[in-house]
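It is worth pausing here to work through a concrete case rather than discussing structure prediction in the abstract. The textbook approach is simple: state the sequence, then state the predicted structure, then interpret. We follow exactly that order.
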Amino acid sequence: MRRELDLEDCWQRWFDRRDPIARDRIIVHYSPLVKFVAGRVGAGLPNSVDPGDLVSAGVFGLIDAVERFDPERGVKFETFAVPRIRGAVFDGLRSLDWVPRSVRSRAREVEGAFQELEGKLGRAPTDDELSTHLKLTGPEFRKWLASIASTTVGPLDRALVAGTEPRALTGDVPDSPAMMVEESEVRRLVRVELRRLPEREKLVLSLYYDEGLTLAEIGVVLGVTESRVSQIHTKAVLHLRARLAATGVA
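Step two, the predicted structure:
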């Protein structure tokens, strides 16, 4: 009980006079939330990604949440903070350039296959057509998708750029007006291209991103294995990347 009163007092001191000591105590109190979010993100990543780096990035999201929180909006702090912590973790993950170049290369080859085959066939290519185009056997193609799958974690807008070069190499200034306009246009194009995807790919993306189901839960809905859902999800993200590239969006 006393701990709750202490926290409430810290919030009051922070709201009233922006007391930095009170802010630091609030951050310490909610630090387990950062570890929880970072742990959820890290669960789908290779061992080469240091969990400590994800936690460090998430702390910046927590700090931002504390500084922006307005209780008058009637939203619990945890509800307000989690998306900001998660976003900071994914941004930190991207800046780490953790995706091996070999995986980025494979992703680009699959995207290229999508573009070429769709142009020739006038429809979405099948797995067999993609693997034949890439001169791979079926099992080899599935292994490629499995290696690329870890780049498609996180919100869809981040998954769509996770296989590209890190933002630090592009010269873009995050949150600049030009950057925000560009991201708004990308979101519009993503919505357009999503509607053109094959039904199963569209369903998997909808259940994963809109409904918040896990890959295992989607597998139950579709009556397939979790690994098959992962393949469909990865294909769908690569398909979207290819279509966005075809429209001129890098």
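Step three, interpretation. The chain has 13 helices and no strands. Residues 1-5, 164-181 have pLDDT under 50 and may be disordered.
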